[in-house]
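hey so i finally got around to running the thing on that chain from the lab meeting. sorry it took forever, my laptop kept dying and i had to restart like 3 times. anyway pasting the input first so we r on the same page abt which one it is
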Amino acid sequence: MDYELRIIPECPNSAPALELFRAALTSEGVPGEVRVLELVSEEQAAELGFHGSPSFIAGNRDVFPSTASPALTCRVYPGKAGLAGLPAKEELQAALRSASSSS
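ok and heres what got predicted. didnt touch it at all, straight out
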């Protein structure tokens, strides 16, 4: 399966998101590289169904599906302490497991 981190320029969560993505994959025993794609236009966001930065993609599908309109924007994830710029590692791992079982 291919893995991709989609971000926007100057997203403050880009580097931590890449580190989190790699750590979650390692914890799940999943080999592979994470490709980083920086989106720079609203057209790109619409074409890819991009719902904000950072977005975690597995098998060309967002592992945290969203009903928000595609846009070049920051993304927030719900967590135990409220909204945050990144999901918890455990939540990302669960989303990755779900993505791999549905592929």
